[in-house]
Amino acid sequence: MQSSLVSFIQVLRTHDVRVSPAETLDAMAVATTLGYTNRNVLRDGLAMTLAKTPEEEAIFLSCFDRYYYQQLSDFSRQDAANGEHPDAGSQSADDGDGPNQQADAVAELSPLAFEAADDAAVAELLTSPLMQSLIDNDRNELTMAIGRAAEQVGLRQIQLFTQKGQFTRKILDAMGEEQLRDAVIELERRQSPALAELQRYRDILREEVRAYVEREYLLHAEGKTRQFMDEVLSKTRLNNIEHLYLHKVHDLVRKMAKKLASRHSRKRRQLKRGQLNMAKTIRKGIVTDGVLFNTYWRRVRKEKPQILAVCDVSGSVAAYAKFLLLFLYSLQDVLPKVRSFAFSSHLGEVSSYFDEHPVEKAIELVNWKYGGATDYGSSLQDFARLALDDINSNTTVIILGDARNNNGDPKLEIMQSIYQRARQVLWLNPESRRIWGSGDSEMLRYQSACHFSAECNNLKQLERIVDQLLKSTS
């Protein structure tokens, strides 16, 4: 059951429940202490150990009901088979009218029984554990056999719906269905009256295996499929993502932002050295009749860093700008102050849009107002007029654009001025690095006035760059 518990924790992880190795060991200790006989007690104990938020608890309960109900039922049946309930076993053995003897009586009258008398292969088939469970209609034993075969073929690794047929066939082969299939073919060749009965048992077996595989697919593959889809979307060029998947991309951006926020969240620390803040120390000592139990120190107030995000929202790069802004404004709790600028032929500050509207609505308004043909030179002039005096050694400037200026004046001197004033200038270009400088691209010239430039056209690259940005501004 410990291996089963580890598999269950893997299922939880695929459903976005965070479980550390230490928590896995705690869960094993809880399961060992509580035992597996009382399902509700085990569920509550594991929930207190593994679920850390109400959302995770809801996911845990859903996964537990779908995964552990069958597992605990199998465990109880194995206990009974191993003799842990001897009274029940002796009662069944002493009862002359038990279900096995009744099934034997029915089997003696079936066409298969007559066929077995003349055919050694059919007789051997009827004595196999698989056929005995089918003839006796012992669903418990049949389910246990399917579970053992599923474990043998690695059903828990199923990820895609196209694999259901493959695993169904593998489980049937592992259970010895080939012997049953060969017997059906032989009886069909002989046109035996026992054919219909044997086909019925074969169809029951296949239906049970298909149902088992379907349940396991829904449990194990649901989270893996979502993770696979997230991985595909995170590595797909943003302008190639179909509208149907945009809501999934938005959710993925928020998930990435939440992970980065958790990684870079600032912790408040109490200073224990420096210049003594006498006024605060005395004031805090009033409640203890002037006894100064605690001392307080002066903080050196640092000027907060700021980020200026300058985004090209012309048709060729609008999708990339949308997700960069969505990423930045989803990190407001850990990022320094963000001021946003959008441009095509002219540039304007759009920070107020994000103060007055939800992020998605603000991005739509920005694209509607500033979309159009691109003129980097004119836009840099507007940026210099609006924000150049605010750039200092604590400012990070992020420029997102393809640097295609339609053969206009690039105003490189303004970029050089920004480079000299700012702490760092980052240029994110959604085009492949191999075509920088081709045609009307001014990227190679602008690159000389940047501290860092990179190809950035999918969420995985964007996440990595924002991660580095958070490290440099913390």
Provide a descriptive summary of the structure in words.
The protein is α/β, with parallel strands linked by helices. The protein folds into four domains: about 80 residues; about 130 residues, no CATH class; about 35 residues, no CATH class; about 170 residues, von Willebrand factor, type A domain (Rossmann fold, 3-Layer(aba) Sandwich). Helix content is about 60%, strand content about 5%. The chain is built from 22 helices and six strands. A six-stranded mixed β-sheet has the order 3-2-1-4-5-6, with helices on both faces. α10 packs across α11, α11 crosses α13 and α16 crosses α22. About 10% of the residues have low confidence.
Distance between the termini: 45 Å
Number of strands: 6
Gyration radius, rounded: 34 Å
Structural class: alpha/beta
The count of helical stretches stands at: 22
Calculate the mean pLDDT score and round it: 77
Task: Note the topology.
Elements: H1 2-14, H2 21-34, H3 39-50, H4 54-81, H5 86-94, H6 99-109, H7 111-118, H8 120-126, H9 129-135, H10 139-153, H11 164-175, H12 177-190, H13 195-234, H14 246-264, H15 278-284, E1 306-312, H16 318-329, E2 337-343, E3 347-349, H17 351-356, H18 359-370, H19 376-387, E4 395-400, H20 412-421, E5 424-429, H21 443-447, E6 452-455, H22 459-473
Parallel strand pairs: 1-2, 1-4, 4-5, 5-6
Antiparallel strand pairs: 2-3
Helix pairs in contact: 1-2, 1-4, 1-13, 2-3, 3-4, 7-8, 10-11, 10-13, 11-13, 12-13, 14-16, 14-22, 16-18, 16-22, 19-20
